[in-house]
């Protein structure tokens, strides 16, 4: 099984960077990074100290529904290049562990698929989950705050 870590779609990010509304219909907040823990979900790199970034509510699902978690994310305020999908975990995954959870084709999480996984074992766990027919994709989320980090798909 080949997997790839994927970033947010550029068309969604550009709309937000241009002042479009977030998942709650609000304009993203603009802040200046102190360089500590501000992962951009588009380039999948940490936002450098002194760079302007956006804080906004994001729902990584096509439609609202009971399982469509919405939460805060960071993006570079200026346009950045979307990370190329790769089998290797992106630089933003620098905590010791993350929540890794499978979702079905109906965009609802698959019960029993989630767990807190050491960072070095995320790719192997995602491969195991994506071998299942009932799992369409996987989310990586913060183990401490449940914030969306990135998605893992079959390559």
UniProtKB/TrEMBL annotation:
InterPro entries: DUF1203 (IPR009593)
Domain of life: Bacteria
Entry protein name: DUF1203 domain-containing protein
Originating organism: Mesorhizobium australicum (strain HAMBI 3006 / LMG 24608 / WSM2073)
């Amino acid at each position: 099984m080949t997997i790839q870590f994927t970033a947010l779609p550029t068309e969604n990010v550009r709309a937000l960077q241009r002042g479009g509304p977030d998942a709650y219909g609000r304009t993203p907040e603009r802040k200046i990074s102190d360089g500590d823990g501000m992962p951009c979900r588009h380039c999948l790199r940490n936002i450098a100290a002194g760079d302007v970034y956006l804080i906004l509510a994001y729902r990584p699902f096509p439609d609202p529904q009971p399982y469509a978690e919405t939460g805060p994310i960071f993006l570079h305020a200026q346009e950045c290049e979307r990370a190329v999908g790769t089998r290797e975990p992106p630089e933003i995954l620098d905590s010791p562990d993350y929540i890794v959870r499978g979702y079905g084709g109906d965009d609802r999480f698959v019960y029993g698929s989630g767990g807190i996984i050491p960072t070095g074992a995320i790719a192997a766990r995602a491969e195991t989950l994506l071998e299942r027919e009932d799992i369409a994709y996987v989310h990586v989320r913060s183990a401490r705050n449940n914030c969306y980090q990135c998605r893992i798909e079959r390559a």
